[in-house]
Design a protein that fits this description.
By secondary structure, this protein is α+β, with helices and mostly antiparallel strands. The protein has 3 domains: 121 residues, Orthogonal Bundle (Butyryl-Coa Dehydrogenase, subunit A, domain 1); 110 residues, Butyryl-CoA Dehydrogenase, subunit A, domain 2 (Beta Barrel), CATH 2.40.110.10; 141 residues, Butyryl-CoA Dehydrogenase, subunit A, domain 3 (Up-down Bundle), CATH 1.20.140.10. It has 11 helices and 10 strands. The strands form 3 sheets. The chain has a 4-stranded mixed β-sheet. The protein has a 4-stranded antiparallel β-sheet with strand order 2-3-7-6, with helices on one face. Helix 1 runs parallel beside helix 4 and helix 9 runs antiparallel to helix 11. The N terminus is likely disordered.
């Protein structure tokens, strides 16, 4: 029997509570409960160790079990498979609130809940859903997505990992790199080339269990930001994957890839939004408390101007992101999804830098989280498609 999803817990929040912007009125009561609950959970469960996670680059071993108990690991998956049965905007809200406390946890969560779990639900057979989704939704299993290779980053269809049919199996050989959750994953949605003659129509998607012979983690990366969220290089050396683990249709993996890209961009865009919100919240508090020349620095117009600009940028990003998430299932949102992640990512980096400037010398010290916010924000301009690629997507959609 599928696991019954646990009910979300409503509880109080800390001094820096829910960020209530103008788009708050666009949310349903269920959205607000989810948002408030996740932020309260994150503040209580991960807040006290967020800086330690960053400093030690250590991943909390019970993270996914705890997120599974909260009921958010399968946020967009129906209850019959152990999920919450919520919409894409709900997923954005979860990532956003986790990111306010820890960008590392938000990133690993997004890689699991969206890149793996949602992908598997949308494209999987009923047998594949029944086999993998309950464990992934409970946190018993950890998920990841593997596309990127040493010579295939933005050029995703340029992958060289090969899968050769052999009886009831496919034999996979190749390398995947920069894979979030790669070193801790139990189940990976992985792309490999099954036809060398076709560049885009020769790719197939596989569900790879990481305990299969021939699968190994060849390298763990030491990153500038998002420390604690494990990123790894994976090796496939005559790794035999059952034919039953083909996700979708053979040689049609690009269709699986493209169907998920818009949702991926929207889902992950919640992270830079959350980082920016936290940076603004910390800055407002500091501007009220820090005194120079006999008065709070918040009384100075240059500080006020920074805070006003930070707020305006955040609200513009929120409106674009929430509205795109709300309509993503109804129509093509290629340019809106690319615009949402482009704008929120670049906005978050600037807002985090402005927050550090407001905090002055204290902001540059590792005793405060400003440096962590800056480092975490920067990845969102690079991962899940660079800002440059996002601009190309938007321009091409406009010129069609």
């Amino acid at each position: 029997m599928p696991r019954k999803p646990p009910k979300l817990r409503a509880c109080g929040f800390g001094s820096r509570g829910v960020y209530r912007g103008v788009t708050n009125d666009l949310l349903t009561d269920e959205h607000r409960l989810l948002r408030d609950t996740v932020l309260a959970f994150a503040r209580t469960e991960f807040g006290p160790i967020a800086d330690e996670i960053d400093r030690t680059d250590a991943f909390p071993s019970d993270l996914f079990t705890r997120l599974g108990e909260l009921g958010i690991l399968g946020v967009t998956v129906p209850p019959e498979y152990g999920g919450a049965g919520a919409d894409l905007l709900s997923g954005v809200l979860v990532v956003e609130q986790l990111a306010r406390v820890s960008g590392s946890i938000a990133l690993s969560y997004a890689a699991h809940a969206n890149l793996c779990v949602n992908n598997l639900y949308v494209n999987g057979t009923e047998e594949q859903r029944q086999q993998y989704l309950p464990g992934l939704c409970s946190g018993e299993l950890v998920g990841a997505l593997a596309i990127t290779e040493p010579e295939a980053g933005s050029d995703a269809v340029g992958i060289k990992t090969k899968a050769v049919s052999d009886g009831d199996d496919y034999v996979l050989n190749g390398t995947k790199t920069f894979i979030t959750n790669g070193s801790i994953a139990d189940v990976i949605v992985l792309y490999a080339r099954t036809d060398d003659k076709e560049r885009t129509r020769g790719i197939t998607t596989f569900i790879v269990e990481t305990d299969l012979p021939g699968f190994s983690v060849s390298k763990k990366f030491d990153k500038f930001g998002h420390r604690g969220s494990p990123t790894a290089e994976l090796s496939l050396d005559d790794c035999r994957v059952p034919r039953a683990n083909v996700l979708g249709t053979v040689n049609q993996g690009v269709d699986v890839m493209m169907r998920g890209l818009d949702v991926e961009r929207v889902f992950i865009a919640g992270e830079p939004l959350g980082i920016a919100e936290e940076a603004l919240s910390l800055s407002v508090e500091y501007a009220k408390q820090r005194e120079q020349f006999g008065q709070p620095i918040g009384d100075f117009q240059l500080i006020q101007a920074k805070l006003a600009d930070m707020y305006t940028q955040i609200e513009a990003a929120r409106a674009l992101l929430y509205q795109t998430a709300a309509v993503a299932g109804e129509r093509n949102v290629h340019k809106e999804a690319a615009a949402a992640i482009l704008f929120t990512a670049e906005m978050a980096t600037q807002v985090a830098l402005d927050a550090m400037q407001i905090h002055g010398g204290y902001g540059y010290m590792n005793e405060l989280p400003l440096g962590r916010l800056v480092r975490d924000a920067k990845l969102l301009e690079i991962g899940a498609g660079t800002s440059e690629i996002r601009r190309l997507i938007i321009a091409r959609e406009l010129l069609k």
